[in-house]
């Protein structure tokens, strides 16, 4: 990969676009794998069809995550648009959807069980976190002056 004049040219274009070094390494890696996947054909000879085949291979055969698929897609779009200056009219750019995991929420009984096994300041902090929705760092930074007992208010500082 180091000796390739083509990849050296890609590096040069990446650097003139002021991309970070880690982006450079990532893009070079994906472009190299794309070329190897297509039996070392020059990217100028390939287009959207070949990109789609490569991305399908990554998703179906290699079972890579959505963010990895998007990373590969971004590298190949950069290659065609910025390096080769070839429009990808025949390719529909659809990034893989990244699913957000839903948080696990305790039931009321589970919450009561956890709180009943805590004592002292730990019980107080856990109750505050659960009851008020404070973040852990916000709770840890609380001081007596931040609590207004008359108005039942807590002042949360950034």
Explain this structure:
- This protein has about 160 residues and is mainly alpha-helical.
- The protein has two domains: about 80 residues, Tyrosine recombinase, N-terminal domain (DNA polymerase, domain 1, Orthogonal Bundle), CATH 1.10.150.130; about 45 residues, no CATH class.
- Helix content is about 55%, strand content about 5%.
- The chain has seven helices and two strands, in the order H-H-H-H-H-H-H-E-E.
- Strands 1-2 form a two-stranded antiparallel sheet.
- A hairpin with a 4-residue loop joins strand 1 and strand 2.
- Helix 3 packs antiparallel against helix 4.
- The longest helix is centred in the middle third of the chain and has 18 residues.
- It is elongated.
- The two termini are about 50 Å apart.
Give the arrangement of secondary structure elements.
Elements: H1 5-16, H2 21-37, H3 48-61, H4 66-83, H5 108-116, H6 120-132, H7 136-140, E1 147-148, E2 153-154
Antiparallel strand pairs: 1-2
Output the keywords.
158 residues; mainly alpha; DNA polymerase, domain 1; 7 helices
Short description:
With 158 residues, the chain is an all-alpha fold. 56% of the residues lie in helices and 3% in strands.
Number of helices: 7
Spell out the helices and strands N to C.
HHHHHHHEE
- How does CATH name the architecture of the largest domain? Orthogonal Bundle
Which structural class do the helices and strands define?
Answer: mainly alpha
Report the mean per-residue pLDDT as an integer: 90
The major β-sheet equals: 2 strands, antiparallel
What CATH first level of the largest domain would be assigned? Mainly Alpha
Any idea of the CATH topology of the largest domain?
Answer: DNA polymerase, domain 1
The residue fraction in helices comes out at 55-70%
Topology, number of strands: 2
CA gyration radius, whole angstroms:
26 Å
Separation of termini?
48 Å
Number of domains: 2
Which stretches are poorly predicted, pLDDT < 50 over at least 5 residues? none
What best-fitting shape do the alpha-carbon axes yield? elongated
Strand order of the largest sheet: 1-2
State the fourth-level CATH superfamily of the largest domain: Tyrosine recombinase, N-terminal domain
Our estimate of the beta-strand percent is under 5%
């Amino acid at each position: 990969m180091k000796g390739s004049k083509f990849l050296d040219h890609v590096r040069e274009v990446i650097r003139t676009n002021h991309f970070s070094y880690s982006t450079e390494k990532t893009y070079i890696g994906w472009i190299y794998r794309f070329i190897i996947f297509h039996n070392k054909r020059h990217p100028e000879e390939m287009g959207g069809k070949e990109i789609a085949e490569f991305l399908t291979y990554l998703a179906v055969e290699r079972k890579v995550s959505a963010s990895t698929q998007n990373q590969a897609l971004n590298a190949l779009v950069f290659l065609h648009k910025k390096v080769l200056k070839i429009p990808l009219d025949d390719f529909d750019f659809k990034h893989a959807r990244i699913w957000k995991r839903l948080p696990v929420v305790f039931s009321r009984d589970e919450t009561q069980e956890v709180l009943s096994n805590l004592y002292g300041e730990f019980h107080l902090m856990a109750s505050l976190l659960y009851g008020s929705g404070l973040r852990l760092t916000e709770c840890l930074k609380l001081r007596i002056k931040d609590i207004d007992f008359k108005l039942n208010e807590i002042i949360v500082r950034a």
